[in-house]
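Here is one record:
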Amino acid sequence: MYIVDPETTVDKIGKLNEAVGQLIEKQGGTVVRMDDIGQRTLAYPIKKRTEGHYVLFEIDGSGQEIMELERRMRVNDMIMRYITVRVDEDRKKADKMRAKREKRASQRAKFRSTEETAVAEPAAEVQA
């Protein structure tokens, strides 16, 4: 994610986003998702500005393109702040927990269905 100076024109922001996407692909990564969030109020003033244009990139790849991307963001005057967050380990944990939850739910469903049939069979014998 990076925050662009709010006085930058929309055309320049679009070109910057394209350049970032091309840089990522040139370095061997892939852009999973790009969200141009738009103008938002900053949590605290940066360079005497209270607003900024937020852009979020979700990237899949090795660390090489990240290093080059951060180097270019550091020297770009339009970008006020940037942050890079690694999410692959968090996703693995989330997928593992989701699989565990689904397994438990399927076991409960199987148990409930056998329990319901066991309860229904004695009632049928009483009526006969």
